[in-house]
Structure formats: C-alpha cells, structure tokens
Write a structure and sequence with these properties.
The protein is α+β, with helices and mostly antiparallel strands and 375 residues long. It has 2 domains: 199 residues, 2-Layer Sandwich (Ribosomal Protein S5, domain 2), CATH 3.30.230; 169 residues, GHMP kinase, C-terminal domain (Alpha-Beta Plaits, 2-Layer Sandwich). The protein contains 11 helices and 12 strands.
C-alpha cells in the first residue's frame, strides 16, 4: 500500500532550464471525487462532487508566434512536444488534452498567441479522480491569465468539457470540469448540470472522506463508457423524453417495460438523481447515517443497474462495510476500475483507510493508494 500524500521529487528540469526564461504565470486546478450522482451529468441530472487535495500545476509563458511547446512531468521525457495553433492534430497522447483546449478556445472566438508550457500533476491518472479535467482547467486558467482573456470559471469548465468531448473524443458530461473549476475541499458542489446552477454545501466536520484507488485503471475514451451513454439516450427516446433528467421516480413503472439494458440504465439515472437531492438534504442536516446508506445504495445501483463496477471495486466496498468507523462507501468516477469513496468518522479515517487498503492488497494482489480529504 502507498499513500498519495507522499510527494515524488520532480525529475523534470525547471521551466527556466527548459525554455530559457521564468514562467509568466503559474496556475493549478484540483482533481475531484464525486460523492454521489454518477453517470447522471450527460443526462442533465444532479451531481455532488468535491475537490481533492491533489492538483495539476501549469507554468506558462506567452510567445510572439503561433508555436506551442509543452512538456509534462508525468510523461517521462523532458523533450517538449511542439504544434502550431490552428494545426492541431490528434495523436492519442497527453498533448491531445492541451490541443483540445486551444481548439476549443479558437472555436469560441478567443484569440491568443503561442506559448511555452510545463505541467506537473499529483492527481492519479486513470483513478476516476478527473486528472484530465484538472489539467484542462489549469491550462485554460493559465491561458486566460497570460493573454487577458475574458473567461469566467463556468466558461472555463464548458471549454474544458468541449476539449475532451470534441477533440479527445470522450463522451463525458460537464461535472468533472465544473468541479475542477469551482469546487474546494471544504464543501461539496451541488450542481444541476442542466442549468449549471450550483450550491456549495459544507462537508460536516464530523466526517472525513477516504479515497482508495483500486489500482485498476480506466479510460473515459473507452467503448463501454460510450455504450452506457448511448443506452441512456435510447431509453430517453423510447420513453418520449429528450433526456432522462425529464423523468422522475413516478416514471419507474414505464421504465420497467423497456428492454433490459435500457431499463437498468434509466432506472439507475432516475434513482440516482433522487439520491443526490436526498444526500444534499442529509448533508445540510448533518444526518450521517442517511449519507452512508445513500452511498451504499448508489454503489449497488452502479454495480447492478449501470453495470460499471468490477470485482476489485466491489471488494473494497464490502471491506469498508465491515470496518469500524465507516458510514458508507461506493464506486466513484466513470467505473470499470478507478477508486472508491469511503465516508468515515473523522477520528477513524486514517486507521480505517489503512485497514481496508491492507486487506484489499492481501486479497486482490494489487497495490492500492489512499488519500484522505482532511490531510
């Protein structure tokens, strides 16, 4: 077992060594953990993420031409990648997320010159903690500051989403970028992804949030994620609505008549939207037992109806269920691997996390990593 708070020394030369001058701006954006509201955002539903104390940091200096030179501490090479603005071409590397940002800015009418960029991130890749959204938001913040662009935080989130959907090709909703742009670690971000209205709800002081990365990586660009979204769209069409957000618990009898896959996907989304609203109310009331019960219900729905869990994730949830001091746990993120969010008594967080991680490592043969929100 390892702990995500253990910072690794940088192996990448400094910005000045790489590019010959100090960076003009330095920005950062956090990863996120979604407490509840999974696979609802692309059906215009409700979500409730919070930021984690892991960040992508971007250093940037403007250039006088249209050349972009970029290097990532996480890519394992100190040789900058280069491309020209207006000539971005996808190459299935980390640079696609940067190219997606510059393409989205141009498409929205924002003009800027080229730049030199150095990035480093402590957000685990493929762990369901939105490393890509963290990078996109940090990049867009840096470009906004360096070139004086008139972009508010919501617009930055929307451009980050567009970068990932239109350029990278991952059919995601807007939750990840909104969380990276607007969330913090002291509050949960209650977000209506239809209207983009949001409310910051304080996380009760009596609890801590443990995020345990299973060691099974996932990708939003994969086929299964795309299939789930298509099934949601097909279910909405069959029920005569534009998106599943237009349905409620009262429509479950109609949902049950759909073909099996469509029925399960729609049932999850409708019930999950209701769970988010209940969870937000329970957070405001400090009702910890209800919060925990909703987490377990949400996981069962992701496992059985949305069918995005894997045996390693299910094992972590069951270990959490039998660990003292734990209120609830569930898969967080897109699924097919990634992480589990575990809500614990604040005083029990570290001991519970160590116990669950050690047993999981023994039973699964994998090396989990752990972080707690209140480190």
């Amino acid at each position: 077992m390892s702990h995500e708070s253990q910072a690794k020394p940088s192996s990448l030369p400094s910005f000045a060594t790489l590019f010959g001058n100090a960076p003009a701006v330095t920005t950062r954006a956090p990863g996120r953990v979604n407490l509840i509201g999974e696979h609802t955002d692309y059906s215009e539903g409700f979500v409730l993420p919070t930021a984690i104390p892991r960040f992508t940091t971007v250093e940037l200096s403007p250039r006088k031409d249209n050349l972009v030179r970029a290097v990532s501490e996480n890519a394992g090479t100190s040789t900058p990648v280069q491309f020209e603005l207006g000539q971005e071409a996808k190459d299935d590397s980390w640079v696609d997320y940067l190219k997606g940002c510059t393409t989205a800015l141009a498409g929205a009418g924002f003009q800027h010159a080229g730049f030199d960029l150095r990035m480093a991130s402590t957000v685990p890749l493929g762990a369901g903690l939105s490393s890509s959204a963290s990078f996109e938001v940090a990049v867009l913040r840096a470009i906004r500051e360096a070139f004086g662009l008139s972009l508010d935080d919501v617009k930055i989130a929307l451009l980050g989403q567009k970068a990932e959907t239109d350029f990278v090709g991952a059919p995601i909703g807007v939750m990840d970028q909104m969380a990276a742009s607007l969330a913090d670690t002291q509050n949960a971000l209650m977000l209506d992804t239809r209207t983009l209205a949001f409310e910051r709800i304080p996380i009760p002081a009596a609890i801590d949030l443990v995020v345990l990365n299973s060691g099974v990586t996932h990708s939003h660009a994969g086929g299964e994620y795309r299939t789930r979204r298509a099934e949601c769209e097909a279910a909405a069409s069959a029920l005569g609505v534009r998106v599943l957000r237009d349905l409620s618990i009262a429509d479950l009898s109609r949902i049950e008549k759909l073909p099996d896959a469509q029925c399960k996907r729609a049932r999850h989304v409708v019930k999950e939207n209701a769970r988010v609203l209940q969870f937000a109310a329970a957070m405001r009331a400090g009702d910890l037992s209800t919060l925990g019960a909703l987490l377990y219900e949400g996981h069962a729905s992701l496992r059985d109806d949305f069918q995005v869990s894997v045996k390693e994730i299910d094992l972590i949830v069951e270990l959490a269920r039998n660990t003292p001091g734990v209120y609830g746990a569930r898969l967080t993120g897109g699924g097919f691997g990634g992480s589990v969010v575990i809500m614990t008594d604040a005083a029990a967080a570290k001991q519970a996390a160590q116990s669950i991680a050690a047993t999981y490592a023994e039973k699964s043969g994998r090396t989990p990593t752990v972080l707690t929100l209140r480190e």
